[in-house]
Amino acid sequence: MAEKYSAFETGPDIAKQFNTTPTAVYAALKRLDVGRRPPYNGFLADCDHHFFDVIDNELKAHFLSATRRFPRRRRSSATDG
User: Fold this and answer.
1) Domain boundary assignment for the chain
2) Quick one: pLDDT at residue 33?
3) Which string of DSSP letters, residue by residue, matches 31-63?
4) 11-21 pLDDT, tens digit each
5) What is the arithmetic mean of pLDDT over 59-79?
6) What does each C-alpha distance from 80 to 12, 59, 77 come to in angstroms?
7) CB 11 within 8 A of CB 26
């Protein structure tokens, strides 16, 4: 069980193989002193929340224009001073 988990099989997948529950798998792994992986499914990079603060290349500009996740400029009208 520890080998399967170390090979990045998930707790629920291991539970199905052993005809048990994920909770039982995690309890067994804890008894075997196997640390539990973070809940973000093995994704190792942290999210850079400031990645789009500066639009410094064409790819970022294209992505933002495609998703429309940028502040829209207010159009000036004839009544604006």
Assistant:
1) 2-31
2) 95
3) HTTPPPPPTTTT--SPP-TTTTSS--SHHHHHH
4) 999 999 999 99
5) 71
6) 61, 34, 5
7) yes
d(CA 61, CA 14): 43
Query: What is the C-alpha separation between 32 and 9, in angstroms, rounded?
Result: 16
What is the C-alpha separation between 16 and 6, in angstroms, rounded?
A: 17
User: Which pTM value belongs to this model?
Assistant: 0.49
The DSSP secondary-structure symbol of 70 reads S
Q: Over range 36-41, report the average pLDDT.
A: 73
Tokens of 15: 């539970």
* Helix, strand, coil share (%) of the chain residues, nearest 5: 40, 0, 60
DSSP state of 8: T
Could you give the dihedral angle defined by the CA atoms of residues 46, 50, 56 and 61, in that order, rounded to the nearest 10 degrees?
90
